[in-house]
Amino acid sequence: MRAANGVVLVTGFEPFAGDTLNPSGEIARALDGTEVKSVRVVGRVLPCAFRECERAMADLLGKHRPEAVICLGLAGGRDGIHVERVAINVDDARIPDNAGIQPIDTPVVESGPAAYWSTLPLKAIVASLRNEGVVAVVSQTAGTFVCNHLFYFLMHTLASNRKSRAIRAGFVHVPWLPEQPAARNGQPSMALAAQIAAIRTLIATTLTETELRVQGGAEH
Ligand code: PCA
């Protein structure tokens, strides 16, 4: 049985790299205050900055004590919903973050393990999305920018405390919105309403799927 007043935390990011829109933040905003499987969604938009997003995440974990955490980010150029398998212990930024910081070959956590697996039910999520006609895959890299940084920080924080180790958590990359310039120039995109519906399905699967398959296996 799940505790009453359960909360699932969904985060997205503010726009970055000169963009005016970030679908991940729009999804978090749209889902805030809604319910999925009788669990309340707390949706928040995080700063796209290495240090500030850590602080914001730590505050949210302490304040809401969520039973699951799903972080979202934009991966322009990717097709469909990409459920990330692994967070790696490196920051290697091609561009500065929104605070002007550009770490190169720097660990996310000094002396932390090389990587953490997502604890979301990856294959069940992909299956449930495909079942609804959504393009979805397990992705093997969340990159080395702010998204991977937040993902690694989240998993490290949860793993570091016995009480939070069982919390399901992971990262999901979403594509451009059709109205964004890159999409107008032919890159893959998905309408916001479809992205929101897909993330609702993903949350429902996370809350109901009890079996966690081996995370390190090859993709099929
Ligand atoms: N995408 C970037 C950072 C913020 C976002 O939405 C990334 O993939 O790292």
Characterize this entry briefly.
This protein has 220 residues and is an alpha/beta fold. It has helices spanning 23-31, 50-64, 122-131, 146-159, 181-184, 192-208; strands at residues 7-13, 35-36, 39-46, 68-74, 81-84, 86-88, 115-117, 136-139, 168-174. The protein has one domain: Peptidase C15, pyroglutamyl peptidase I-like (Aminopeptidase, 3-Layer(aba) Sandwich).
Describe this protein's structure:
- With 220 residues, the chain is of the alpha/beta class.
- The chain has one domain: 3-Layer(aba) Sandwich (Aminopeptidase).
- The protein has helices at 23-31, 50-64, 122-131, 146-159, 181-184, 192-208, and strands at residues 7-13, 35-36, 39-46, 68-74, 81-84, 86-88, 115-117, 136-139, 168-174.
- It has a seven-stranded mixed β-sheet with strand order 2-3-1-4-9-5-8, sandwiched between helices. A two-stranded antiparallel sheet has the order 6-7.
- A hairpin with a 2-residue loop joins strand 2 and strand 3.
- Helix 1 (23-31) crosses helix 6 and helix 2 runs parallel beside helix 4 (146-159).
- The radius of gyration is 16 Å and the shape is globular.
- The two termini are 32 Å apart.
- Mean pLDDT is 94; it is low at 216-220.
- The chain binds pyroglutamic acid (PCA).
- Pyroglutamic acid binds at residues 13, 16, 22, 24, 48, 73-75, 143, 145-147.
CATH architecture: 3-Layer(aba) Sandwich
Going by CATH, what is the homologous superfamily? Answer: Peptidase C15, pyroglutamyl peptidase I-like
Instruction: State the order of secondary-structure elements, H for helix, E for strand.
Output: EHEEHEEEEHEHEHH
Largest beta-sheet details: 7 strands, mixed
Structural category is alpha/beta
Number of strands: 9
Number of helices: 6
The ligands bound in this entry are: pyroglutamic acid
Could you say what the CATH topology is called? Answer: Aminopeptidase
Q: How many structural domains can be distinguished in the coordinates? A: 1
Low-confidence stretches: 216-220
If strands are numbered along the chain, what order do they take across the biggest sheet?
Answer: 2-3-1-4-9-5-8
